[in-house]
Design a protein that fits this description.
The complex is a heterodimer of chains A (241) and B (226). Chain A is of the alpha/beta class and 241 residues long. Chain A contains nine helices and ten strands. A six-stranded mixed β-sheet of chain A has the order 6-7-8-3-9-10, with helices on both faces. A four-stranded antiparallel β-sheet of chain A has the order 2-1-4-5, with helices on one face. The mean pLDDT of chain A is 94. Chain B has a single domain, classed as MetI-like fold, CATH 1.10.3720. Chain B is built from nine helices and no strands. Chain B is elongated. The termini of chain B are far apart. Classes of the chains: A alpha/beta (241), B mainly alpha (226). At the A-B interface, helix 2, strand 6, helix 3 and helix 5 of A face helix 6 and helix 7 of B.
């Protein structure tokens, strides 16, 4: 479904990604872990071209998205993204946040879009907030709205960029449970996270990144229990102790 | 009584005699007209210039930057004189129109920067979130960034109107009878500098105060949904 080959990304003289190869299958849930600055978020942002790769290719369902002929906007409709800082549109109500992109981009009647938006709010557990402005929501509620907003475009893939890092601890679980539910429904997901517990339990595969490369990868049962590389062991010792 | 007599004399000679107050009234009307038209011209130029610079439209982007730099780096009074004599002086145009265009060209540079700053102040994540949903950059601008930017820009625009209103006091350099020049005309007839110019100052202050109150109200109303 997603195939990344030989991906490099530099910001000026700073090489953030130095040769990444990843293959994500349909319905797979992949968690990306690693220290700050290891390139996790940049990798994620390259997959929907919020960052333009310096070198290498990214294929989504066979189409090379790095080629000039790709319609970036069409591609992004199929790849939902959830940000650490939620990035809800503050001048719109919750339901308007969900409806904006579908009503501008999908050729569907307004009522159907509205109905779907309401169903999505139901799904993430906050149907009663439909007409509130984002400033009236808690962090956890904001992130659940952001997930619903991304789902409103019916994406095939969901990318999560540290979705719980900006949340108060007591709000982390409500967001993770929505993500768990999505994974259960067979959504293809790539999640950059610091929640090792979640990665252990929900991921099919975990990638450990260090200094712009994938240092080690494997199913969580193996990677967490018996990491092969010294750097993986060091990192896990630090975050799990 | 000793104080009142000279005061009454001053008011009589500066305002009543030969209907001199009408000079001030007509001057104020001219000042307001120039301000209003210049603001409109400035808004159009500013919108255009800001668009060119925000979207980095090739070919014109450098010209837009140059325009802003030249206008901001030279005195308005010099710009006014150059535009009047060198550019528009050769055609027979109404002075009021010339002044409006000149002040509009001047204001456009500042308005452009206001708009750019207002758009720049909207969090970068807003654009990214909109783009990540598949909206084009124009759609993201229109539905997500601009509505938020307007909140930053509108109060600043009223401030620009205040600055512009005061700036038009130099219109006398092209012999246009604005409020300041009206004061000057009265002074030259009565040989009294204090009374006409104190009056002129009060009228300016009153006009800008009205605008300031408007700006405050606007800011409060726009801030409500935050």
């Amino acid at each position: 479904m997603i195939k990344v080959t030989g991906l490099y990304k530099s910001f000026g003289p700073l090489e953030v990604l130095r040769g990444i190869d990843v293959h994500v299958k349909k319905s797979e849930v992949v968690c990306v872990i690693g220290a700050s600055g290891s390139g996790k978020s940049t990798l994620l942002r390259c997959i929907n071209l919020l960052e333009k790769p310096t070198k290498g290719n990214i294929f989504i369902e066979g189409a090379d998205i790095t080629s000039e002929s790709t319609d970036i906007n069409k591609l992004r409709q199929k790849v939902g993204m959830v940000f650490q800082q939620f990035n809800l549109f503050p001048h719109m109500t919750v339901i308007e946040n969900l409806m904006l992109a579908p009503s501008k981009l999908l050729k569907e009647p307004e009522e159907r879009i509205k109905k779907r938006a309401e169903e999505l709010l139901e799904k993430v557990g906050i149907p009663e907030k439909a007409n509130e402005y984002p400033s009236r929501l808690s962090g956890g509620q904001k992130q659940r709205v952001a997930i619903a907003r991304a789902l409103a475009m019916n994406p095939d893939i969901m990318l999560f960029d540290e979705p719980t890092s900006a949340l108060d601890p007591e709000m982390v679980s409500e967001v993770l449970s929505v993500m768990r539910q999505l994974a259960g429904e067979g959504m293809t997901m790539i999640i950059v996270t610091h929640e090792m517990g979640f990665a252990k339990e929900a991921a099919d595969r975990v990638l450990f990144m260090e200094e712009g490369i994938i240092e080690e990868e494997g199913p969580p049962s193996l990677l967490f229990a018996e990491p092969k590389r010294q750097r993986t062991r060091d990192f896990l010792n630090k975050v799990l102790s | 009584m000793g104080i009142l007599k000279p005061l009454a004399d001053a008011i009589y000679s500066n305002l009543i005699r030969e209907d001199r107050y009408m000079l001030l009234v007509r001057g104020l009307v001219s000042t307001l007209e120039i301000t209003l038209f210049a603001l409109l011209v400035g808004l159009i130029i500013g919108l255009f210039t800001a668009t060119v610079r925000i979207f980095k439209i090739k070919g014109v982007e450098k010209a837009a930057a140059l325009y802003v730099n030249v206008i901001r780096g030279t005195p308005a009074v010099v710009q006014l004189i150059i535009i009047y004599y060198a550019i528009l002086g050769s055609v027979n145009l109404d002075k009021l129109l010339v002044a409006s265009i000149a002040f509009g060209i001047n204001s456009g540079a500042y308005v452009s920067e206001l708009i750019r700053a207002g758009v720049g102040a909207v969090d970068k994540g807003q654009m990214e979130a909109a783009r990540s949903l598949g909206l084009s950059s124009a759609q993201s601008m229109r539905y997500v960034v601009l509505p938020q930017a307007v909140k930053n820009i509108l109060p600043a625009l009223v401030n620009e109107a205040i600055m512009l209103l005061k700036e038009t006091a130099i219109a006398g350099y092209i012999a246009l009878d604005d409020l300041t020049r009206a004061g000057n005309i009265i002074r030259s007839r009565t040989y009294d500098a204090y009374t006409p110019f104190l009056l002129v100052a009060v009228v300016y202050l009153y006009s800008t105060t009205v605008l300031s109150i408007l700006a405050e109200k606007l800011e409060r109303r726009l801030g409500r949904s935050d």
